[in-house]
Amino acid sequence: MFAGLDMDIARGRVTAIMGPSGTGKTTLLRLITGQAVADSGSIHVAGTDMRSVRRADLYVLRQRMGMLFQNGALLTDLSVFENVAFPLREHTDLPERLIRQLVLTKLQAVGLRGAAPLMPAELSGGMTRRVALARAIVMDPEILIYDEPFVGLDPISMGVILRLIRRLNDALGLTSIVVSHNVQEISTVADTVFLLSGGKVVARGTPQELQSYPSDVVRQFVGGLPDGPVPFHYPAIDYFSELLAQGEDH
Amino acid sequence: MNPIRELWKSLKETLQDLGAITRFLLRLIAHSPRALLRFELIVQQVFNSGALSLVIIMLSGLFVGMVLGLQGFQLLQRFGSEEALGTAATIGLVKELGPVVTALLFAGRAGTALASELGLMRATDQLSAMEMMAVDPIQRVVVPRFLVESSRCPCSRRSSV
Fold first, then answer.
1. CATH of the domain spanning A14-249
2. Structural domain contains residue B134
């Protein structure tokens, strides 16, 4: 899927990974988080080689990471409060009073303290993602990863998530990695953007630099053009030849 | 298409699947002692799959018993042996039909509930989310269910009787 992919993600910054559908953005996240193992090459996260890391060490490393999934991935049989408390209950022996305070603090940070007793089925898409964000930061991670955080959100919810990405990154001193298609929106919060296409990085720089990047792929992606280096038509034999051949086949 | 090559490929895939299933089972068994320490998870599963299945198993046992009683009475009456009905129905139900009824209902009710629950968790990334929270889904989700389902069948059989 990738060939000659070379990326450095800066500590303490918001880095966006963008690219056309099917270019391997989510796969790259899975490689970074150790959910998948690369056949070749090397991936280092916080000094750990993800290709040779042992399972136990990987779990220790993941306690320093948080991840916001595309659909939130809240545990459906637990309330909002219990979802956010879940990592604390699994990894710490903190007293209940302290867990309650930590959970309420994180829910307050995403503006959903009042939704603590609700069940995930009672939340809207935007609220689900904010709860998932509270859960992702409850262990005070160093790295926060967002997989398509804006999919299916209305403009208000999208604005809330965008503001939270920037605010949490700056307030908590995180390193944020955001995978997204939304060029305009992500440009408002990202410090650095990597644009992937054909299994490699075709452009890197600030969102402003990307707007005037001298590359057809970048121009097509940023401008949302339907045809270009990423073709509108899936590769096929000549249209008229196939139409004529179809009659003979049948 | 070479039939021998296809056969070999199919055989190899079957062996790989069997190997994966065996490894998964061994992993479940290896995790089981530690899962017993999380007693609240076991209790929750006993309720979910055990207590919630009791009604349908008991109801089925009742109807099977009634059918045995009715049909058995008509048959035994011809020979003047109605008094043997209780013994016959009890032995038939306890020794023969009870385990079958329980096993079928177990596969039908608890098995499908379990499969759909885990499938939903997988489809909605809940298991991946657990992994990202450094929580092993096998240890947290699968092993308690495995332990409870393995021990539940004999218990439920008693209930059906």
1. 3.40.50.300
2. yes
Residues of chain B found within 8 Å of residue A90, distances taken between Cβ atoms: 133-135, 140
What are the C-alpha distances in Å from A59 to residues A9, A11, A54, B35?
21, 21, 9, 18
ipTM, 2 dp = 0.83
> pLDDT tens track of chain B, all 161 residues?
688 899 999 999 999 999 999 999 999 999 888 888 888 888 888 888 878 888 888 898 889 889 988 999 988 988 888 888 888 888 888 888 888 888 888 778 888 888 999 999 999 999 999 999 999 999 999 999 888 888 766 665 555 55
CB-closest option in A60, A65, A71 to B132: A65
> Which residue among A67, A71, A139 places its CB closest to the CB of B124?
A71
Distance (Å) from the alpha carbon of A112 to chain B's nearest alpha carbon: 20
Domain ranges of chain A: 14-249
Domain range enclosing B115:
36-160
* Residue A74 near chain B (CB below 8 Å): yes
Q: Provide the domain count of chain B.
A: 1
Give Cα separations from A75 to A80, A139, A149 (angstroms): 9, 17, 18
- Contact between B133 and A73 using a beta-carbon 8 Å cutoff: no
Let me know: does B85 contact B72? Beta carbons within 8 Å. Answer: yes
